[in-house]
């Protein structure tokens, strides 16, 4: 991990002021004519989604005031503005994870910036391990709900003073994932002939960076989780707090190991390999969804 001056200041940073978010948003608004209504966060190996955009303006994270940067393979570090299906979009090629050492204010920093840019809809994507035995590697799971496991342990991005300019103190999360967007995505997938590998289910976020033990996988299954990953929930919590509509999807990149006799071992290389296999289908799905929105 790079231990540059900038990285350390982000790791230590306890929180941000409203003015920080505003400065970042104003800087972006001054440097692009685009006024995006849709933001897309690309998961591990899924940065190709940004290739869909036309009339692109690209900002390396390091050039954007107050913006963190990603340290994980499979995550470029740039914000891409552009058009998709006639809609102005902004796409994060590279997200920030708690396990990188960032606090949750940093992990979710871009989401509040998107809100201040005028974004109304957030599309989150991730690579995840399949817990549901009927899921296959390469399936795309439309996220119905999430379990924010770090939140159970007091790591919720909304802990701390509440700024009413973003949202209420006690936001509802029972409607975190927009049902209409999910229905449209299902229709979009059916039209593309993707029904054989489309699933719907519950995503569970763990802090990472370790993959799960066998006992942990068994627990997660009994809790009702269908897929497990290391991201997404904090971004969705912050997005819902400030009133963005959310659509999420997980690419099932690997089967979790639940058998003590198994020789299989989860690894990031397999995760990235699977994303390569499905990248065009994912792009088709997101593009067709945008066309329907
Ligand atoms: O950013 P996402 O959640 O897609 O990345 C997943 C979780 C870890 O960062 C990595 C593990 O392979 O993929
Ligand atoms: N926690 C976790 N994250 C993942 N990201 C991709 N696959 C996995 C997995 O099996 N477990």
TrEMBL record:
The EC number(s) this enzyme carries: 2.4.2.1
Residues bound to a purine D-ribonucleoside: 212, 254
Keyword Hydrolase attributed: no
Domain Nucleoside phosphorylase: 37-290
Pathway annotation from the record: Purine metabolism; purine nucleoside salvage
Record-level GO BP terms: purine ribonucleoside salvage
Catalytic activity, as annotated: 2'-deoxyinosine + phosphate = 2-deoxy-alpha-D-ribose 1-phosphate + hypoxanthine; 2'-deoxyguanosine + phosphate = 2-deoxy-alpha-D-ribose 1-phosphate + guanine; guanosine + phosphate = alpha-D-ribose 1-phosphate + guanine; inosine + phosphate = alpha-D-ribose 1-phosphate + hypoxanthine
Positions contributing to phosphate binding: 44, 75, 95-97, 127, 231
Highest taxon in the source lineage: Eukaryota
GO molecular-function terms, A-Z: purine-nucleoside phosphorylase activity
SUPFAM superfamilies, per the entry: Purine and uridine phosphorylases
Pfam families reported in the protein's UniProt record: PNP_UDP_1
Enzyme class per UniProt: transferase
Keywords for this protein: Glycosyltransferase, Purine salvage, Transferase
Claim: Kinase is one of the keywords in the record: no
Family matches, as PANTHER family: METHYLTHIOADENOSINE/PURINE NUCLEOSIDE PHOSPHORYLASE, PURINE NUCLEOSIDE PHOSPHORYLASE
Family of the protein in this entry: Belongs to the PNP/MTAP phosphorylase family.
Subunit and interaction comment: Homotrimer.
Function: Catalyzes the phosphorolytic breakdown of the N-glycosidic bond in the beta-(deoxy)ribonucleoside molecules, with the formation of the corresponding free purine bases and pentose-1-phosphate. Preferentially acts on 6-oxopurine nucleosides including inosine and guanosine.
Name of the protein: Purine nucleoside phosphorylase
């Amino acid at each position: 991990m790079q231990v540059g001056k900038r990285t350390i200041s982000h790791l230590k940073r306890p929180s941000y002021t409203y003015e920080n978010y505003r400065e970042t948003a104003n800087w972006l608004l001054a440097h692009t004519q685009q006024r995006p209504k849709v933001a897309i966060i690309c998961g591990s190996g899924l940065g190709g989604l940004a290739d869909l955009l036309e009339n692109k303006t690209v900002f390396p994270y390091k050039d954007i005031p107050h913006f963190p940067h990603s340290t994980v393979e499979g995550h470029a570090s740039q914000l891409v503005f552009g058009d998709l299906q006639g809609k102005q979009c902004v796409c994060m090629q590279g997200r920030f994870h708690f396990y990188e050492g960032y606090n949750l204010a940093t992990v979710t920093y871009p989401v509040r910036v998107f809100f201040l840019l005028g974004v109304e809809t957030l599309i989150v994507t991730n690579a995840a391990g399949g817990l549901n035995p009927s899921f296959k590697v390469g399936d795309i799971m439309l996220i119905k709900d999430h379990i924010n496991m770090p939140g159970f342990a007091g790591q919720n991005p909304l802990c701390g003073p509440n700024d009413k300019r973003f949202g209420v103190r006690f936001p509802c999360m029972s409607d975190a994932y927009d049902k209409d967007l999910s229905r449209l995505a299902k229709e979009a997938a059916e039209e593309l002939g993707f029904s054989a590998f489309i699933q719907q289910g519950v995503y569970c976020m763990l802090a990472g960076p370790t993959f799960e033990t066998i006992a942990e996988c068994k627990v997660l299954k009994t809790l009702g989780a269908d897929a497990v990953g290391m991201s997404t929930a904090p971004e969705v919590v912050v997005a819902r707090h400030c009133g963005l509509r959310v659509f999420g999807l997980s690419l099932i990149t690997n089967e979790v190991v639940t058998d003590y006799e198994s020789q299989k071992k989860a690894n990031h290389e397999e995760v990235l390999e699977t994303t390569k296999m499905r990248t065009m289908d994912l792009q088709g799905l997101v593009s067709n969804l945008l066309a329907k929105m």
